[in-house]
Amino acid sequence: MQPNEKRISKQTLEKIGKYITFICTIILAIIVFTIILMVAQRGLSTFFADGVNPLDFLLKTKWLPSSVDENGQSYVGALPMIIGSVAVTLLSAIFATPFAVGAAIFMVEISPKFGKKVLQPVIELLVGIPSVVYGLIGLTMIVPMIRGVFGGTGFGILSASIVLAIMILPTMTSLTVDALQAVPQYYRQGALGLGATRWQMIYKVVLRSAKTGILTALVMGMTRAFGEAMAVQMVIGNTAIVPNSFITPASTVTSILTLSMGNTITGTLENNVLWTLALVLLCMSIIFIFIVKRIGRKG
Q: What pLDDT is recorded for position 71?
């Protein structure tokens, strides 16, 4: 084969590769757009087809889609589920962040060899455990512990937050490790050369330089927590009321969707309001993504 023929064949393969990747990108964009369009169409039908007031849906606290009041209006207040989702997400992030940052500091700054040999495989193992297993662990260990310490049934936001904190810990740790490893080595050498101790170097130089990546890890962990369904459903109690404490049964958007979607008929109000909850969940996920993008730009 002549050199020109080899060059032509390579150019042809490059063009074919570009076309294939372009087609895959277009297909992926179409799938994402179709999912967003379908959820939006079904979710908005609650307001346009069934006549539910959007403010009533977001702000009222009674959730009984199959019942109506004296004015013929259904009880479709989603505020208890929204409050439950936000509370569980924030509390799990508060629980997981110190452990994620501490583990990442140990793996990168204190004992890199031990961290790579022992901790990193353990973290990867935690990522691969199914969520239902976390739910079973929470049901048999965390719920009885909460019941014994605080009283009550043990089901509630606190139990769900602890389970979710364990679930999002591997994701947050891995992203935090990447953020710490991205800090240039000469930052550390310069700080130590100026007389800083190891902990001063870690706190005042490494962590501050990696704060953008750490914030990204936090938001990604919250995104994971907000969208979790099965494990939360098993330990939160699934009661559609505004919780008055962290140890009373509550519910989240995902837990109500998991419990109710298979028991409704397509096109009915009961089914449409569940699609509206899915739309709320989708909007929150998009907001989290925009936050991550914003943090990335600032970094």
A: 64
